[in-house]
Design brief:
The protein contains ten helices and seven strands. With 289 residues, it is α/β, with parallel strands linked by helices.
Length: 289
């Protein structure tokens, strides 16, 4: 079975058109899961009409807007298909790209769409290019368009995936770190015709912070000693050389140290360094017991 997961938020004019477009692509063994992410317009009523028309259309409704990551997670958990396709409800993703996703995923665990000819304003393209460049540098996963919602997943790859904030953008990276095989295909992209974009200036910094966190977590979650011990060694060495410098001044040049705050700084840095190293060992013991 193929599961189509579509997060929706205030897309009353688009969901019916998207449904009709999907009907021209999908075969018998499918389900379409619309996740209404707290819409304040008539989106839910439009989805109910689709459900009455076709029982393979299923609806998850949130009481408030929780964001795309939460919507995708709900869709993943509810889906029954062996292959899960995710796409936007704004008609900018093209359902005609679904067959090539299904064909390519036979040899992969996740296929990410690449909007190589993106039909968005420059105010969306520039942050996206920066985000994608940082994504490749920090995660090591060579995906050109991490923000493209049109993706295909095998069920076993995403069944235990935890999503929050803006981390839905980095699902391929998180799967790659777990050993899953990631691929990419070029997909079409269309201009928005109805409704308003949900993109705003806060999404870029939020997404960047989530990217930094998951990169940090991937690198140090199993070896906290490398992080804390590294800080500890640096702190201890700086403190040691400060103390050594002051010791030389006192022994060989007779300089008094009682009124020099640098002495306190040296001792403090060595003490902090030792504590960081000890905490690193304790963290290592904690995650292994």
């Amino acid at each position: 079975m193929i599961s189509i997961v579509v997060p929706t938020y205030n897309e009353e004019k688009n969901v019916s058109i998207l449904y009709e477009n999907l009907m021209g692509i999908l075969e018998e063994d499918y389900e379409i899961i619309f996740v209404d992410d707290g819409s304040t317009d008539n989106t839910f009523n439009e989805l109910q009409k689709l459900h009455e028309k076709n029982k393979k259309v299923k609806i998850i409704k949130f009481r408030k807007n929780f964001g795309q990551s939460a919507a995708l997670k709900a869709g993943f958990d509810y889906s029954k298909g062996d292959i899960i396709i995710t796409m936007d409800a704004d008609l900018q993703n093209d359902p005609h790209d679904i067959p090539q996703l299904l064909e390519k995923i036979k040899d992969y665990d996740c296929i990410s769409g690449w909007r190589c000819d993106r039909k968005d304003s420059v105010f969306k393209k520039i942050p996206s290019k920066i985000s994608n460049w940082l994504h490749r540098k920090l995660t090591g996963v060579d995906i050109h368009d991490s923000g493209c919602t049109l993706k295909a997943y095998k069920k076993e790859a995403i069944k235990n995936l935890e999503l929050y904030g803006e981390t839905h953008r980095y699902i391929p990276a998180m799967l790659s770190w777990q050993g899953y095989k990631i691929g990419e295909v070029k997909v079409a992209h269309h201009k928005r015709k109805y409704g308003k974009t949900k993109y705003n200036y806060t999404r870029f910094p939020k997404g960047l912070l989530d990217l930094l966190f998951i990169s940090f977590w991937k690198k140090y979650q199993s070896r906290p000693l490398h992080l804390m011990g590294g800080f500890g060694i640096i702190s201890f060495i700086i403190g040691f050389f400060i103390s050594l410098y002051l010791t030389i001044l006192r022994l060989f040049f007779g300089v008094g140290l009682s009124n020099r705050p640098l002495l306190l700084l040296g001792v403090l840095l060595m003490s902090i360094g030792v504590q960081f190293i000890v905490f690193g060992f304790l963290a290592e013991i904690s995650i292994r017991t």
